[in-house]
Q: What sequence folds into this?
């Protein structure tokens, strides 16, 4: 029998949720066939069959939370071996019942720079019988919520009360093995498993992961026509998305009138992902903590656009990356931060911490939500270095491969709503930072230039800042400085 284990989830990712099983107990499976998809707050992971045989047990259902190393289920190699599985499980449980040894429940590692957390509400009380991997309590930190499960089946003893402050490795309770708890272990059995061993060839759609299946279904794609770039010939989500543009829209148009409105639910309740919960909590905390104010200006993009048009082909050939507007804005922001240090500072209690480094957060929209990876030491980077750094961070964000270190420690943030067509907005601070710059859509508008009306490409800029530390004069001066550097790019090159 081969266990199906939760794989390593990536640096700083401590847990995942079961999204969907593609097989049920008793189904025949092949080695490396996708069995289940796990979702974390950053990425989706596929777990494959460890061997040919029959799926004889599923220990974690859809929606359950698991940690690396958790046994999700088991595959019995060879169809005939599936039936005796419950009998084999019983003797294994017997020593635990007789031994009665207690297994400590320890606080897990909660991520880099997270030194402590608070005990939430225990879902069980001392003396209750618990099953192995059953969720017992959630520990809240300032960045993530960590779920703690039972390390073994048995009777629970709690040593840390609700609301107590705990640190990684601290023992908050224990589970003593008991016969009653151990007896429940053989529950996931499947007697009719051998009857399904004849399904040797599954249709192509059965091998699609849940994430890929959603894209295929929502866009009426034919899986047989998709090119597969994943390992072992699997179709990835990127393959499905790339095929959307090539799909013919005729079929959806013909089918649309046939679907009566009554077939669609008027409302749908969906649980928020952990990333969306974190975004919601942090944005509300930002509003409640800082004295936020936004000031606006507009910038004539004529000279920057002309410079970019003149050199973009040479730039790309020389550096291997496209020349965009973000590098110009980042350079202008860094120079303005040098001159107005309060915007690059933060408040800590009754102290002000002035930052002498310039780590710029770049807001990136993904299909799971907004993330803000940090471009380190932007003041030491050239335009090419900035463009390469932003491109790498953007790709990692869209692929769900960002680490906690890449999203922490920024001193100032830039967000570009213009890529989605935004004309103007008031961005919310990424606390504890004291400033965030909002870029917007470039629009051709009539402007008065030297007494004449001319059509110019104009962009509105918005600076939201913490009025507790940044005065209005400093905020306006900061934004005007950015405007000057963008309207005359030579000033930045000459350090004027």
A:
């Amino acid at each position: 029998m081969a266990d199906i284990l939760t794989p390593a989830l990536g640096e700083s990712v401590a847990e995942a949720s079961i999204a969907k099983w593609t097989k049920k107990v008793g189904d025949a499976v092949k080695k490396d066939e996708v069995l289940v998809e796990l979702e974390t707050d950053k990425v989706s992971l596929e777990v494959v069959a460890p061997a040919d045989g029959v799926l004889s047990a599923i220990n974690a259902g859809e929606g359950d939370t698991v940690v690396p190393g958790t046994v999700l289920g088991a595959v019995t190699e060879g169809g005939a071996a599936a039936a005796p599985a419950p009998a084999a499980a019983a003797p294994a449980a017997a020593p635990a019942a007789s031994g009665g040894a207690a297994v400590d429940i320890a606080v897990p590692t909660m991520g880099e720079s997270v030194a402590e957390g608070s005990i939430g509400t225990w879902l069980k009380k001392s003396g209750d019988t618990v099953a192995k991997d059953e969720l017992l309590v959630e520990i809240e930190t300032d960045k993530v919520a960590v779920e703690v499960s039972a390390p073994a089946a048995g009777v629970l003893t709690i040593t840390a009360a609700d609301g107590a402050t705990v640190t990684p490795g601290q023992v908050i309770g224990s589970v003593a093995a008991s016969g009653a708890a151990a007896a429940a272990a053989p529950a996931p059995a499947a007697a009719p498993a051998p009857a399904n061993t004849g399904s040797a060839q599954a249709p192509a759609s059965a091998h699609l992961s849940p994430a890929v299946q959603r894209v295929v279904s929502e866009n009426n794609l034919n899986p047989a026509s998709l090119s597969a770039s994943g390992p072992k010939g699997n179709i990835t989500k990127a393959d499905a998305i790339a095929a959307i543009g090539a799909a013919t829209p005729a079929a959806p148009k013909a089918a649309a009138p046939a679907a009566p409105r009554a077939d669609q639910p008027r409302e749908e309740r969906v649980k928020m992902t952990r990333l969306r919960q974190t975004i919601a909590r942090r944005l509300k905390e930002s509003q409640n903590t800082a004295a936020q104010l936004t000031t606006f200006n507009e910038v004539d993009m004529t000279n920057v656009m002309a410079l970019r048009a003149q050199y973009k082909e040479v730039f790309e050939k020389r550096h291997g990356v496209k020349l965009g507007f973000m590098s110009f804005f980042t350079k202008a922001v860094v120079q303005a931060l040098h001159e107005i240090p309060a915007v690059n500072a933060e408040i800590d209690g009754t102290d002000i911490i002035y930052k002498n480094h310039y780590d710029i957060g770049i807001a990136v929209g993904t299909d799971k939500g907004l993330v803000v990876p940090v471009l380190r030491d932007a003041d030491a980077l050239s335009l090419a270095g900035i463009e390469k750094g932003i491109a790498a961070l953007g790709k990692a964000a869209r692929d769900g491969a960002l680490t906690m270190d890449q999203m922490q420690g920024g001193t100032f943030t830039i967000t570009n709503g213009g890529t989605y067509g935004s004309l103007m907005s008031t961005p919310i601070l990424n606390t504890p930072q004291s400033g965030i710059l909002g870029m917007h859509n470039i629009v051709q508008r009539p402007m008065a230039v030297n007494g004449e009306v001319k059509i110019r490409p104009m962009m509105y800029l918005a600076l939201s800042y913490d009025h507790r530390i940044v005065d209005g004069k400093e905020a306006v001066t900061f934004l005007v400085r950015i405007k000057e550097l963008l309207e005359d790019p030579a000033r930045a090159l000459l350090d004027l």
Notes: Residues 80-99, 179-206 have pLDDT under 50 and may be disordered. The two ends are 72 Å apart (CA to CA).
